[in-house]
Amino acid sequence: MKMIIAIVQDKDSNRLSNQFIEQNIRATKLSTTGGFLRSGNTTFLIGIEDDRVQEVMDLIKETSHTRDQFMTPPVNMDVSMDQTASYPVEVTVGGATCFVLPVEAFQQF
Amino acid sequence: MKMIIAIVQDKDSNRLSNQFIEQNIRATKLSTTGGFLRSGNTTFLIGIEDDRVQEVMDLIKETSHTRDQFMTPPVNMDVSMDQTASYPVEVTVGGATCFVLPVEAFQQF
Amino acid sequence: MKMIIAIVQDKDSNRLSNQFIEQNIRATKLSTTGGFLRSGNTTFLIGIEDDRVQEVMDLIKETSHTRDQFMTPPVNMDVSMDQTASYPVEVTVGGATCFVLPVEAFQQF
Ligand code: NI
Ligand code: NI
Ligand code: NI
């Protein structure tokens, strides 16, 4: 048994939760802040058998890895603004940090 | 020293907190969601000396184990409903998942 | 790599967050309650290279250790009260509890 502590961006956390449920991976979700200068993030505590650690890591990577996205910034109401401000811009979203911790004992009651 | 991470149902968490205080067991409470498809749950982080691990596990088991309970469902206001709907029904409540993690160092300032 | 779990008083948590950012230490903040009969506390999860563990512990100690402080209690509006009630009194604030856990693997995506 291992304990995986995974910190992902809020925007990826629902998708990851759903993946965990679908794959029958037991994860507990903590609401967290700070870290990495990023605003909102979510921490998952995942208890998992040794031979499924890689599967969980692959799932987190697939769902939450850093990627570039085009976003249209909100329209600026200030008429004096440069019109280019509302064109789509490329931003980096996502990213996950994972720690695998040893577990000495595991019990369910 | 060990770190016990215990996930219990919200409805058992106050009773467990009180038990920890009474037995002089230092526990920190995190508000958590998800996991096991169950709605609200509470995660406790418990730092404990090696020779008290079993005592803590016994306490969690006693306070939070899965058990069947009779519950009277809320009365349904729809007069056309089958009257049997307000008879007590048996439901399963409680349940705890515990991980014991090794601790390399412990310090208080 | 180690995982440091540090529990500090709420009143010290912002100062500690700022120190972590300044020293480029990646910490995630959990909102926690209970433990030690103290009301509000904050738990930090800090993933750190082995050779920086002592640096993090020193920072937590410096920022959050138990110390005595003089506080002026709020003025009591009841005119019949003893006037000495609004003199400064010495109270103990702060305090940190730190656990260092081994980490078997660490990955960022
Ligand atoms: Ni991709
Ligand atoms: Ni029982
Ligand atoms: Ni000092």
Largest Cβ-defined interface = A-B, 21 and 28 residues
Q: Quote the CATH topology of chain A.
A: Alpha-Beta Plaits
The main β sheet of chain A shows up as:
4 strands, antiparallel
User: What's the end-to-end separation of chain A, in Å?
Assistant: 17 Å
The assigned CATH architecture of chain A is 2-Layer Sandwich
- Strands of chain A, count: 7
Weakly predicted, low-confidence segments of chain A: none
InterPro entries (chains A, B, C): CdAMP_rec, N-reg_PII-like_a/b, N-reg_PII/ATP_PRibTrfase_C
Protein name (chains A, B, C): Protein from nitrogen regulatory protein P-II (GLNB) family
Describe the protein's topology.
Three copies of one chain form a homotrimer.
Chain A (H helix, E strand, L loop, with lengths): L1 E8 H13 L4 E7 L6 E9 L4 H12 L2 E5 L17 E5 L2 E7 L2 E4 L1
Antiparallel strand pairs in A: 1-3, 1-6, 2-3, 4-5
Helix pairs in contact in A: 1-2
The structure holds nickel (II) ion (NI) (3 copies).
The site of one nickel (II) ion has 2 residues of chain C, from loops.
Organism (chains A, B, C): Furfurilactobacillus rossiae DSM 15814
Protein name (chains A, B, C): Protein from nitrogen regulatory protein P-II (GLNB) family
Pfam family, one (chains A, B, C): CdAMP_rec
